[in-house]
Design a protein that fits this description.
Layout: H1 2-17, H2 24-53, H3 60-93, H4 95-101, H5 104-122, H6 147-205, E1 221-223, E2 229-231, H7 239-248, H8 254-318, H9 326-350, H10 352-363
Antiparallel strand pairs: 1-2
C-alpha cells in the first residue's frame, strides 16, 4: 500500500510540476496514476482489515460503496492502460494524422470516457444486480456473485481491454519491425548507389591512358534514384580538379569555374545539417523502441497480475462444484492489487524524464 500510494503520488506530482512531462500523452499516464493511487489509499486498507480479521466490521452501507469503488477504480486503472496502448498504436501507425487530432480537449474527452465506462461497469450492484446474501455467523462483504453481472464486469473490466492491448501491442511490434527493415534497406540501397556513382566518376575523370580529363566534359549534375541532385563536389571533385579546370578554360569559361568551386566549398557546410537530421532520427527511433518496450512490460505485468483473479472470479460463478477456497481467491485478489504498484516502478526505471523528476522531488 505504501509503495502504491507513494509511487503513484510521485508520478502525479512529476507530471504536474515538470515542464518536460506536461504533454498530452502523459495525461493518460496521470489518469492511470490517479486510479492506482486511490486504490492504495481508499480500497486496500479496508480490504486488508477484512483479510486480517476474517469478517467485515465497517457496516453494510460502506460495504456496498467500498465494493463498487473497488470495481470502479480497478476498472479505471485497467482501461487507462488500454487507452495508453491505443494512444501509442495510433501514434505509430497514423503519426501525422493522429498527432494533429490529439488535441487537449479530445484527449480529456478520451480520459473522461474511460472513467465513465468504469462507472457504468461498477454501479449495477448498487441498484440491485446481485443475489441476496446468505446468512452467516459474521458480517461479510463480498463482490456480487450473480452470474450475469460477473460475466458483464469481467469482460468489461478485463477480458475486452486485455484483448485490445494484446492485439494493439502485436500491431505496434510488427510496425516497428517493418520500419526497421525499411530503414536497413534504404541504407543498403544508398550504399550501392554511392558505389555506382563512384564508378561513374572514375569513368569520366580518368582516361584509359591515365591522363586527367577536364571535368567540364562530365555532366554537371547527376540524378540519384531518390530524386536528389548530386553535384560534382558530392562525387569527390577536389579543389585541384577545379584549378586544372580553370587552366583549361582560359577562353570564356571562368564563370563555370566559380560555380563548381562554390559547390565544392558549399558541400561541407551542408554536411552538418544532414548529420544533425540523422542524429535526430536516431534519437526518435530510440525513444520509440523504449516506449514500445515500456508498453510491453506494462501489458505483461497487467495480464500476469489480473488474469488469475478474473479466471477464478468467473469460474467461481459458473462452476458451483468447484471448490476454490478462500485462500486461493485472496491470493489472486491481492495479486491484482500489486499491478497498481508495478506501473510507477516501470516508469521510474525506463523513462529518463520521470527519473529526473523523481530525483528532483525527493532530493531537491
Amino acid at each position: 500500500m505504501i509503495l502504491i500510494v507513494v509511487g503513484n503520488m510521485l508520478v502525479c506530482i512529476a507530471i504536474a510540476t515538470e515542464k518536460a512531462l506536461k504533454t498530452v500523452q502523459n495525461w493518460f499516464i496521470a489518469s492511470l496514476a490517479v486510479s492506482d493511487f486511490l486504490v492504495g489509499l481508499i480500497i486496500m486498507p479496508f480490504s486488508l482489515a477484512k483479510e486480517v480479521m476474517g469478517y467485515w466490521i465497517f457496516g453494510r452501507i460502506w460495504c456496498e460503496i467500498h465494493s463498487a469503488l473497488d470495481v470502479f477504480l480497478c476498472t479505471a486503472s485497467i482501461n487507462s492502460l488500454c487507452l495508453i496502448s491505443l494512444d501509442r498504436y495510433w501514434s505509430v501507425t497514423h503519426a501525422v494524422e493522429y498527432l494533429r487530432k490529439r488535441t487537449p480537449r479530445r484527449s480529456l474527452a478520451m480520459i473522461c470516457g474511460v472513467w465513465v465506462l468504469s462507472a457504468i461497469i461498477s454501479l449495477p450492484p448498487l441498484v440491485g444486480w446481485k443475489k441476496p446474501e446468505k446468512p452467516s455467523n459474521y458480517p461479510e462483504c463480498l463482490l456480487s456473485d450473480d452470474v450475469g453481472y460477473v460475466l458483464y464486469s469481467a469482460f468489461g473490466s478485463f477480458y475486452v481491454p486485455a484483448f485490445v492491448m494484446v492485439f494493439v501491442y502485436c500491431r505496434i511490434f510488427v510496425a516497428a519491425r517493418s520500419r526497421a527493415r525499411r530503414h536497413l534497406k534504404k541504407k543498403q540501397k544508398a550504399a550501392s548507389v554511392a558505389t555506382e556513382l563512384t564508378k561513374k566518376r572514375h569513368l569520366f575523370v580518368k582516361e584509359p591512358q591515365g591522363r586527367r580529363t577536364s571535368l567540364l566534359k562530365a555532366p554537371k549534375f547527376l540524378k540519384s534514384p531518390f530524386g536528389s541532385t548530386l553535384s560534382l563536389a558530392d562525387l569527390g571533385g577536389s579543389e585541384e580538379d577545379v584549378s586544372e579546370m580553370g587552366e583549361e578554360t582560359k577562353n570564356g569559361k571562368k564563370k563555370k569555374k566559380k560555380k563548381v568551386k562554390a559547390q565544392v566549398e558549399e558541400a561541407p557546410k551542408r554536411q552538418p545539417t544532414t548529420e544533425a537530421e540523422r542524429h535526430k532520427r536516431r534519437i526518435a527511433k530510440a525513444k520509440e523502441r523504449r516506449a514500445t518496450l515500456i508498453l510491453g512490460l506494462i501489458m505483461a505485468s497487467f495480464i500476469l497480475a489480473w488474469l488469475p483473479f478474473f479466471v477464478l472470479y468467473v469460474l467461481e460463478a459458473l462452476c458451483k462444484v468447484c471448490d476454490i477456497g478462500p485462500t486461493g481467491f485472496a491470493v489472486a485478489f491481492w495479486l491484482g492489487y500489486c499491478n497498481s504498484a508495478l506501473n510507477p516502478i516501470i516508469y521510474t526505471i525506463f523513462n529518463r524524464d520521470f527519473r529526473k523528476a523523481f530525483r528532483k522531488i525527493l532530493f531537491k
